[in-house]
Amino acid sequence: MKLLWLQASGCGGCTQSLLGAENRSGVFAQLADSGIELLSHPGLSESCGDESLSLLQAAADGLLDFDILCVEGALLRGPNGSGRFHILSGSGLPMIAWVQRLAVRARYVIAVGTCTAYGGVNAAGDNVTEACGLQFDGNERGGLLGEDFLSASGLPVINIAGCPIHAEWVVDTLCSLALGALGENDLDALQRPRFYAEQLVHHGCPKNEFYEFKASAQKPSDLGCLMENMGCKGTQAHADCNTRPWNGVGSCVRGGFPCISCTEPGFEEPGHPFMETPKIAGIPTGLPSDMPKAWFVALAALSKSATPKRVRDNAVSDHPLTVLKKPGKK
Question: I need a surface site. Which of 79, 200, 247, 327 has the fewest CB within 10 A?
Answer without folding.
Answer: 327
